[in-house]
């Protein structure tokens, strides 16, 4: 790896700082696409994107093209999107329904579980030809509450064990309306960032920046709508407030803003058309309307599942590394489906998708890109991760998680511990 020769890889990650090369070195980036994105449970898709047998979506596991599919019985598979014949990409559509995936090169075809089921002029391979041994490569796949993850690491513990306390936090996020199921909406915000993917994850549990980076958005909201609207708790010395950050284990991190929110709907910034929607919800639900209006709004939770899934408010952001200095970001709006939840609730949740991704995320992208530019300076070697490291304000929270003030760099340190563990692991990755 092309990092400073006097420092081995594990020395580049120290408790109070990390080396700039971790964001800029192409060899490190290539290695982490294998060791990190292949070596742990990595988020790929949501089950609502695969609604029926033979449904599929194309995704990437690090830089590996994969197909997430359901077979004829509805079971999930993650298939390496590479023909076992000559290596061509087999599936070339982003989503759809297919009983077979047929490679356009020589028409080898594979069923929705990855088995090789068709070879033109098969007799040309002779009597020893074994189709059963030539199916598409597979990753381990598991799903928790609809979130689909995959890994190429046979030694990884099961997904629930790996999630640890994050599983309970996912439950709390999903169960705000009892009995509802989550669905990803088709409307997405897709963004390009000229920065390293880890800058995005660094920011995902950073409670230090919002009152500064998003000041123009916060000031506009306050001037238009008055004090007390969404995100006003990020202004001032937020360490004196009630927000916290936590190390959830295995690189997962968490910002909890819920103690700052008395009534979700009443503290929300107004949205176009909300009055009519609110009236309809109140007419349909009566006494239950307040609870339904509250689930329109963000949950007060930023839950970050290492290495690439960010659950923010009531939206999902997925980090998709492309190059050492190029990252794609996809924001998904979510809907809640339940017999007793009116359609107007999800219409308002969709309107919320027009809010922060449009007016707040550009602030973050600008910061990420300027960080990438600044990190190119070789004489300035280190990035600090030491905020609240020695203040004595960290404690073990009620779920057994190490917790600190909202501006603590605790989440950064948690991320880098897991990153270093995976990058120095001797585990061999392999397809099934």
Provide the number of structural domains.
Answer: 2
Strand content: 25-35%
Residue runs with pLDDT of under 50 for 5 or more positions: none
Q: Got a strand count? A: 22
Instruction: Please give the count of helices.
Output: 13
The global form is: globular
Helicity level: 25-40%
Predict the CATH topology of the largest domain: Naphthalene 1,2-dioxygenase Alpha Subunit, Chain A, domain 1
Span from first to last CA? Answer: 28 Å
The largest pleated sheet is described as: 9 strands, antiparallel
What integer is the average pLDDT? 92
Structural class: alpha+beta
CATH class of the largest domain, named Alpha Beta
GO molecular function: dioxygenase activity
Protein name: Aromatic ring-hydroxylating dioxygenase subunit alpha
Domain Rieske: 41-150
InterPro entries: Rieske_2Fe-2S, Rieske_2Fe-2S_sf, Ring_hydroxy_dOase_asu_C_dom, Rng_hydr_dOase-A
């Amino acid at each position: 790896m092309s990092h400073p020769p006097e420092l081995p890889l594990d020395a580049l990650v120290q408790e109070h700082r990390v080396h700039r090369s971790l964001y800029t070195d192409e060899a490190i980036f290539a290695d982490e696409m294998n060791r990190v994105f292949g070596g742990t449970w990595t988020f790929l898709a949501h089950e609502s994107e695969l609604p029926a047998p033979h449904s599929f979506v194309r995704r990437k596991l690090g830089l590996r093209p994969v197909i997430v599919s359901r077979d004829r019985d509805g079971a999930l598979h993650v298939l390496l999107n590479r023909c076992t014949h000559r290596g061509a990409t087999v599936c070339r559509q982003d989503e759809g329904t297919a009983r077979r995936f047929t490679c356009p090169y020589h028409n080898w075809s594979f069923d929705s579980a990855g088995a090789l089921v068709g070879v033109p002029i098969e007799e040309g391979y002779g009597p020893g030809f074994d189709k059963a041994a030539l199916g598409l490569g597979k990753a381990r796949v598991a799903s928790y509450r609809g979130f689909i993850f995959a890994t190429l690491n046979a030694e990884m513990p099961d997904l629930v064990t790996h999630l640890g306390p994050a599983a309970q936090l996912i439950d709390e996020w999903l169960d705000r309306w009892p009995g509802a199921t989550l669905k990803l909406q088709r409307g997405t915000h897709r963004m390009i960032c000229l920065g390293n993917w880890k800058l995005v994850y660094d920011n995902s549990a950073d409670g230090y920046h919002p009152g500064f980076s998003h000041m123009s958005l916060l000031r506009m909201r306050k001037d238009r709508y008055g004090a007390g609207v969404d995100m006003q708790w990020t202004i001032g010395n937020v360490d004196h407030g009630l927000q916290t950050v936590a190390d959830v284990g295995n690189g997962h991190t968490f910002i909890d803003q819920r103690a700052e929110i008395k009534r979700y709907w009443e503290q929300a910034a107004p949205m176009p058309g909300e009055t009519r929607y609110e009236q309809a919800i109140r007419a349909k639900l009566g006494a239950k309307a307040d609870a339904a209006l509250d689930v329109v709004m963000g949950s007060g939770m930023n839950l970050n599942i290492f290495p690439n899934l960010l659950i923010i408010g009531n939206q999902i952001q997925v980090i998709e590394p492309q190059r050492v200095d190029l990252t794609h970001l996809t924001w998904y709006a979510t809907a809640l489906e339940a017999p007793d939840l009116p359609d107007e609730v999800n219409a308002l949740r969709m309107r919320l998708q027009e809010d922060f991704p449009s007016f707040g995320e550009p602030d973050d992208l600008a910061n990420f890109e300027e960080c990438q530019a600044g990190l190119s300076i070789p004489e300035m070697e280190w990035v600090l991760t030491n905020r609240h490291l020695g203040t004595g304000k960290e404690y073990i929270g009620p779920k057994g998680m190490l917790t600190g003030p909202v501006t603590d760099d605790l989440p950064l340190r948690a991320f880098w511990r897991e990153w270093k563990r995976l990058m120095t692991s001797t585990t061999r990755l392999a397809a099934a």
